[in-house]
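Notes continue from the previous slide.

Worked example: a multi-chain complex. Inputs as given:
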Amino acid sequence: MSTAATPVPHYTTTGLDSRKIAIWAFIGSECMLFISLISTYLIYKGRSVVGPFPHEKWTDPATGHVLNPILNIPVTSMSTFVLLMSSLFMVLALAAVQNKGRPLPPNAGWWTRKLASSKLWLFMTALAGSTFLGFQAYEFTSFVHEGLTIKTNLFGSSFFTLTGFHGAHVTAGVLWLLSLLGIDQRRGLGPKDALIVDICALYWHFVDVVWIAIFTLVYLIR
Amino acid sequence: MATTAIATPYPKPYEGEHTGVWSWLTTVDHKRIGTLYLFTALFFFVFGGLEAVVIRAQLGAPNQHLVSAEFYNQLFTMHGTTMIFLAIMPLSAAFFNFLIPLQIGARDVAFPRLNAFSYWVYLFGGIFITVPIFFAVAPNGGWFGYAPLTTRAFSPGINIDFWVIGLQILGVSSLAAAFNFLTTIINLRAPGMSLMRMPMFTWMAFVVQFLMVLAFPVITIALVFLLFDRFFGTNFYNTVSAGADPLLWQHLFWIFGHPEVYILVLPAFGLVSEVIPTYSKKPLFGYPVMVYSGILIAVLGFGVWAHHMFAVGMGPIADTFFSLATMLIGIPTGVKIFNWIATMAQGQIRLTTAMLFAIGLIALFTIGGISGVMHSVPPADLQQTDTYFIVAHFHYVLFGGSIMGIFAGIYHYFPKIFGRILDERLGKIHFWLNFVGMNLTFFPMHFAGMLGMPRRIYTYDSGQGWESYNLISTIGAYILVVATLFFIYNFFRSKRSGPIAGSNPWGAATLEWTIPSPPPEYNFAQIPQVTSRYPLWEGKEADRESARINSQEGKTAAELGIVIPYSTIKPLLVALGLVVMFCGLLTTRAIIFVGAAIMILSLFGWLLAPLEPEHH
Amino acid sequence: MDSPADSHATPDSAEATAHAPHAEVHAHPTWDTYWKVALILTLITVGEVWAYYVPSFVASRAFVPTLLTMSAMKFAIVVMFYMHLKYDHKLFRALFTGPLLIAATTLVALLFLFGHLTVLRH
């Protein structure tokens, strides 16, 4: 992610930027990473010896307490929606960077001008991502209060590790977005920077796509 | 433990090239990084070999107690871990680094600083995982670290902590390099070099990068689970109280582990595919088939992993599937053997040392392949598994295969790397001692295994029929020590005072032989235009003209107007930060933050700095 | 992370025939496309959550396949439109679908090996 001055046209076999090829290779690799985590979660589904469980009640034989199913679908549906919207914001951020410098039509309204602001959409993406992380933090702490930690059972270990890895990826993405925002503030991002914003966008969308899989496989399917 | 090379003057130092330790610490030049890999990996090869020599000394006769059972566990664990992760893979990396840009007509890899980063992570990770043996706390759970044995419940000591963390670190190095070489091969090939015109080493390297990109994440997660279990109390492998599945580790590990063995052998195959045509003065027979078989091996390689698990009781469906897939994968592998032989047929054979090693691979890998196919039959494997029969198999394919191929590559490419030629007489002694020593060491293991000698036992009783085989193996191992000494002596003497090589001492065909030995910093004065697979044998006038221009010596990058990337210490710092961060798990947790801070700050510095000076 | 430097030595060098790094000249989606995609994604998500709360549907054999199909659709839409794989060079499609296929196959194999695909055993 070099922010050096004008990129020099280097010879390439494909005519494509090497960094874009590398990020897609990285995304391919991440498919295998997350599939290992997801596979383990699914392998251990239904096999925890003690609760709490994701979708069923559990009576603790030691205390007689009844623990409710711990997953909170309404809240997670909200956070899923927020993450989905963040992908929309990301796409708008990229478009704004690609179109920067193009004069707006004379009758451009408020919305058209807002669409053109890369700073706005980078910020919105980071905000949505942070909101998602906020939801995750809320979810994790409430689970711990209800008796599910990473050590409790197979479900706790595999759930927190899977969603934790995803959350770490989101966090790295938010930091990346804020860095881009910082550069936009300092010297402005224009069409010549479209590639580095594109690479961040590809990473960000992929993280969203992983969540689509997790939401269905962990939360919705019993 | 001095594993980095001190700068050595090349026969014809170029003006403007830097010397001195700092230049090596800050280099982003693929040729230097390749050289660093070569020296470090050869050091670890010797170290891992010494571990094996102690093992063989211990097993040379029944009921010996040269080492305790506990230390013996550390020896075989570290021998395997060292040879696979610190010797063979980095030796392949040395060739990927040095050779790929030269073979495709590029000036460097796609991401030079990431390249340097990969090396430093390897070096620091290698030191991290090797130092413990000097304090007798080395990893001791086997190179494959089966859980739940390696969980804290059954391995409470610090040994396995070094293993988990060390491998996690080394995995980062390999993955980063894989993205780099993948992009390089896709995107930096010279004009006219279509995929089907690439040299076969680059093709095999290409396939291997895909294997790494797909297999390493799986072991990363397996290790994460073990690390979390050991340090944070999770339950992934907790079969004692949480109902974990004892097979989870095995499946995850071998989903990585089987592609890993193809990662270990395909580069050696690629080197042999360069050597044999050169010394037969004939193009490689069946080039397209060699490409497709390489691809097929990689793809099928993801579907055979559970053949390492025939004894765990997966059931008839799983056993049958993996058995058939394993038999199937023998076909593209066998095809390569035939193609190499067909290349030699009616060629003008020159039995140089490189050629001898390449032919040695053909013979010895075939033996290893045959025993491999024997394992693919589950009922037969039930007898063979966990015996010395398996040890024989994998040493034939890894030593007789990978190592022989790598030595072939070393003798062939030493002139290109160092500008001088390895002594042929010493080389042939090295080869024959190696060949005899290797067979003496590992062939008897087939018999010991068939007679029931289990793996990983530190001693055995007399009267079971195993003594003579073990004695012969031990003698073979000592012969290998002598062989290696000849090689080391030859290596350093020739580097200092061997006969000077020109750009193409062997009359080879591909692009790397069109430039001086050693190559100038910028590789090619003029990016070649490629018109054939064998530019120096079949290429048109344009190839020859470009070769003539490129073999002219003496001009600096500045004189030619070629921009060279900045040297920088930042990749080393990021690597250091990463390793310090992991070390924090073993010491005070505050160190984790120190390491993370070093890593992130250096990373920002790296990403915000330009790779190279601007053009005019 | 840049590509390495070029030669500027000879005028008839290979650069003359080199590819100029071309911008993605394929049609860029616009705001119009984007909001529609976002709407479709939202609707599918609403559908998924709705399905979750219909007990008779959850109990049926169609539940899991339906949910998997819906999320697969969301997956494909984000990849094709937001990650613009639909509009980009074929190379990226290859770089993504290869690993995706291997990942999916590995998942199915593991589920089978650990006894979770009993429905297939009959």
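Summary box: The mean pLDDT of chain A is 93. Residues 18-220 of chain A form a domain with the Four Helix Bundle (Hemerythrin (Met), subunit A) fold (CATH 1.20.120.80).
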